[in-house]
Design brief:
This protein is mainly alpha-helical and about 375 residues long. Helix content is about 55%, strand content about 5%. It is built from 16 helices and 3 strands. The protein has a 3-stranded antiparallel sheet. Helix 9 crosses helix 16. It is globular, with a radius of gyration of 22 Å. The two termini are about 30 Å apart. Bound molecules: coenzyme A. Coenzyme A (COA) binds next to helix 15.
Amino acid sequence: MKKEDLKHGLEGVAVAISSISYVDGEKGKLVYRGFEIEDLVENSYFEEVAYLIWFGSLPNENEEDFIKSMLSKKRNLPENIVEMMRLFPENAHPMAVLRSVVSMLGMYSKEDNSTLENAINLTAKIPTIIAYWYRIKNNLPIIYPEEHLNHSENFLYMMFGELPEYSKCFDKALILHMEQGMNASTFASTVTSSTLSDIYSVITTAIGTLKGPLHGGANEKVLEMLEEIGDIEKVPEYIDNLIRNKKKIMGFGHRIYKTYDPRARILKKWVQEISAHEKVDFFDIAVKVEDVVVKRFKDKNIYPNVDFYSGILYNHFGIPKEFFTTIFAMARIVGWTAHAMEYRKNNRIFRPRSIYNGPKDLKYKDMKGVEING
Ligand code: COA
C-alpha cells in the first residue's frame, strides 16, 4: 500500500449500506427513514421517532403502546450500581460516569448481543444514570423513575423533581440528536459490534467516542467559549485570536455539511422564539460569534453545527454544561443501536490497514549495543 492510498480520517469512504438516515451535506438536509427532520420535530416525539429509527416505519397504536411501555418499564438501575455511584468522585465528569455505568451494567447481564430488547433496555436506563448522577453529585435525594411519564418528561422529573414547561422543546431537541449517519461514535460502535462483542461494549465505545470535543463534547466547549467571551464587543477579537493561533472554533464546521447544519438552524429558531419573551443567556454573543465566523471562513464553508446552539438551550433549561454531552448520548443511543443491529444482518469485521513507514531491517541489540545474532 502506498501513501496515496491513505484516506485521512476516512473522508469520503463508505463503510456500510444503510437505510436509517440520509444526510445531504450540500443542501443541508437530514432525513430519518425517509422523513425530513423538520417534519419529525414538528409532529412527532421521542418514543415514536425511536420506533421509526429502530423498526423502519412509524408505529401504529399497538406498536406505540409497546414501545412506550418497554421504555418506561426498563428505567430502573440495579441498587448495587446506585450504591457504587455514591462512591464515585464528586467531580467525575458526567460522560465518564455514563461510560462507566453502562460498562458496569454489562456485568449484570448475560453476554448480550445487539438485539432490539437490549437496545430498548439501555435506552431506557441512560436518562436514569444521568439524572441519578446529577442528584448524587449535588447531594440531593435520588428521584426514582415514574412509569406514567414519557421518556423526556421522566428524565426532567428525575433531574429536577418537577415537570418544566419546556419539556416538549427538550423532547424535540432529543429527536434532533438521535441519528446522523456514519458519524464518529456510530462508526466506532459499529466497529465494536462487528467483532460480535456485546451491546454494553458497543455503547461504552460509542459514549467514549462522543465525549471528545471534536464530536459531541463540542456543546460543552461552546458554552465555555461563550462564557469566556462574556461580552458581545469582544467577539471579533476573540475569534480572530483563535484563528491566528490555528485553534478550532467549537460548534462550527462539519465533515458532511458544507452549508448550514439543519439541526443548528432549528435550534437557533427555538432559542430565538424563547428570547422574544425572556432573556436567554449568551444568545446575543452566540449570534455575533456566528456572524464573525461565517464571514471569516466564507471560502471554507464553515457554519454552525448542532452543538453551537444546543448548549444555550440546555443552559436556559437549567442543565449544567458538563451534562450537555450526556443529553446528546441519551438521544444518540437510538442511532448507535439501530446501526449495530443493521450492520449485524450482513456482518463483516472491520479491519482496515495502516501504511507502514518505519524501519524494516533493524537487528536486535542488547543494552550494551552488542548484536546478539550478528
Ligand atoms: N474552526 C476553525 N477552523 C475550522 C473549523 C473550526 N470549527 N472546522 C474546520 N476548520 C477548517 C480547518 O482548520 C481546515 O482548514 P485547512 O484546510 O486550512 O487546514 C478545514 O476547515 C477543514 O477542517 P477539518 O478539520 O479537516 O475538517 P474535518 O471534516 O476533519 O473536521 C470537525 C470536522 C467537525 C471535526 C471540525 O469542523 C471541527 O473540529 N469543528 C469544531 C468541533 C465541533 O464543533 N465538533 C462538533 C461537530 S458536530
